[in-house]
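ARCHIVE CARD
SHELF: 3
SLOT: left
DATA:
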Amino acid sequence: MLIYLMILAVFDWREKKVPLMLPVFGLAAAFMNLFYDLYHDPAEWKWLLAAAFLGIIPGILMLAVAGLTGKAGCGDGMVLLIIGLLTDYKSCILLLCFSMLLMSVFCISMLLLKKAKRNTRLPYLPFLTAVYAAGILVRHC
């Protein structure tokens, strides 16, 4: 997952957008993983579906923001959907919150240094990737 996020982050950083096929393939892989889990452990299907539903809520919210305001990209929401399907909902929500916090600190510092203006568009996925990598390090240390 980290390598996938790093690839997406590079596209997002360079071009300020992600090729739509990358999140679509990731979403397909996440659903295949969910179906595998359902097949592998059919007794737990209610809990697996409930966890998947709760996990995709941050992604749905990001897609809603993208559609309603245009202040976020659809790729960002799709990546959060993928993460929500592959992890538990608590991890996905924490990932969203900490990545937004990191992005806010970066934005404030760029504004104070006069390197960006109020309407400067910034990529989101590099911050999401950084927080995901930090979470892996924290869990393994």
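SLOT: right
DATA:
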Amino acid sequence: MKKKETEIIKQIDELVQSKKEREDVLRETVKVLKENYEHYNWVGIYLLKGDELVLGPYLGKPSPHTSIRLNKGICGAAASQKKTVNIPDVNSDPRYLACSLETRSEIVVPIMRGKEVFGEIDIDSDKLSAFSNEDQLLLEQVCSILSELF
């Protein structure tokens, strides 16, 4: 892992250990990710409530999708399948729920502990194939750390 990613992991771990309110930790996590990666055009966290994902803190253009049912869209797929979904070209995936005409790719990583899903990080990019294996590994580690909040 590169130095930048190591620093981000450390920063988010410190946030989780800080005993701040969960909402504040999630908001600051979104900010850290958005500010450190130019290709992260929209960064948000959805929290699972019953069988719906409810939009929490986010940075980027307003989203019409403040609530997403499980098995709907890429977000619903990631939570239902309990695994990361990385879509290099959203226009080629029929599950994509359009938020912005500029969005070209999306990655969604569940926040889980064991087999239980608590929410997810959703990131959109205006670039095709924007998310590398390094992005996925970083975000999966961030989600693992965030799972301690639940």
